[in-house]
Give the backbone structure.
Amino acid sequence: MFEDVDTELKQRIDSLIKELEGRIIRAVASDDHLLEMATDLRSIPGISPVSNTMLIAEMPEIGTITGEEAAALTELAPIAHESGTLCGNGRSPCSPARDVPNGPGCGPS
């Protein structure tokens, strides 16, 4: 009984996914700017059609920013976490008298 429901539900979901994929493809193809972005992104090794579409949808600034800015937006860029409370190796508290990272008073004594 439930197997029939599961099969029907899966078929309906698959049908909706195909319909949405078709709409996305048509939307990108109908816009010169989006089509150019999609073509450029697809030329990058490792960018799948799904990644391509997600980048276009979620990062419309792609193509107008630097690689470093894109890495920062996607939180892929390394970021130093020296806010003044930790110094040197990132685990040692700074001396209140000398809160200069890696300076006297920072790190192990």
